[in-house]
Amino acid sequence: MSTESQVKHWHVTYNNIHNHIRKITPKIAQDFNPDLLVAIGTHSLLVFFLRGFFPARVMRTFLREITSNKTLQIQAIGLSLYEPVAGVTEDKIGEQVIRTQWLGAEAGKMLLGKRILIVDEVDDTRKTLRYALTELQKDVETELLNHPEIDRDALRASTKFGTFVVHNKNKPKLAELPEGTLYYSGEEVADVWLDYPWESINIEEHDRLAALDVQSAAA
Ligand code: 5GP
């Protein structure tokens, strides 16, 4: 039996994702009111996978609507935990997170004093989110060294991190988020393999399979 047939798949459509983001954004705007979005992507074998990019762009549309036309910047970071496995559509869990793209030399300056929402498509083991948060916090600490010591506590306190994932898998996590990090998910899901629309070659077939998934879950 192949690895593929052992894992239950669930096909997610663009509309599902859009609607989950539409529902959660007012809460995020009210509780956290981000002023910078950092989307996580993956750079692997010359291809850049969207992951958090599409959700971040959709969230910006809704945030703009709620916060009277405030246009948010979306920055991108590239992280990889899963290495593609030839012949199967699931990915095996990698041992560690690999940084493939970052914010550049001005990272700390860009982050300091902001409310930063990190956006990814799915929280599985939580290793990726933890890595992203701890590394971005290190950039903030490095930038603080350029400021007088007397100002540092206030600047640190004014820099806040939140995270948003479209899907959170209900399973034991292998990593924890730093204390005080706000966490939002669009939908809580079982520990299945989610097939995202941007990974699909044939979107009509993908949507057909998504409708079948919904039908079989309701049966
Ligand atoms: P974590 O670090 O939480 O284990 O995993 C985060 C990353 O693993 C996700 O951003 C995604 O790239 C990949 N991943 C984990 N589970 C799934 C899944 O069910 N479907 C897809 N397409 N990617 C997944």
Descriptive overview:
There is one protein chain. Strands 2, 3, 4, 5, 6, 7 and 8 form a 7-stranded mixed β-sheet that branches. By secondary structure, the protein is an alpha/beta fold. The chain is built from 7 helices and 9 strands, in the order αβαββαββαβααβββα. The structure holds guanosine-5'-monophosphate. Guanosine-5'-monophosphate (5GP) is lined by residues 42, 51, 81-82, 120-128, 193-194, 196.
Layout of strands and helices, then pairs:
Blueprint (H helix, E strand, L loop, with lengths): L2 H4 L2 E3 L2 H18 L4 E9 L2 E3 L3 H14 L7 E10 L8 E10 L5 H5 L3 E9 L3 H18 L4 H9 L2 E10 L12 E8 L3 E3 L7 H16 L1
Parallel strand pairs: 1-9, 2-4, 2-6, 6-7, 7-8
Antiparallel strand pairs: 2-3, 4-5
Features:
219 residues, alpha/beta, Rossmann fold, seven-stranded mixed β-sheet, 7 helices, binds guanosine-5'-monophosphate
Nutshell version of this structure?
This protein is α/β, with parallel strands linked by helices.
**What structural category arises from helix and sheet content?**
alpha/beta
Number of helices: 7
Instruction: Report the CATH C-level class.
Output: Alpha Beta
**Number of DSSP strand runs:** 9
Q: What hetero molecules are in the model?
A: guanosine-5'-monophosphate
Q: Residue-averaged pLDDT, rounded?
A: 87
Overall structural domain count: 1
Briefly note the CATH topology name: Rossmann fold
Strand content: 25-35%
What is the helix/strand order?
HEHEEHEEHEHHEEEH
Protein name: PRTase-like protein
Keywords: Glycosyltransferase, Membrane, Transferase, Transmembrane, Transmembrane helix
Organism: Lentinula aciculospora
GO biological process, one term: GMP salvage
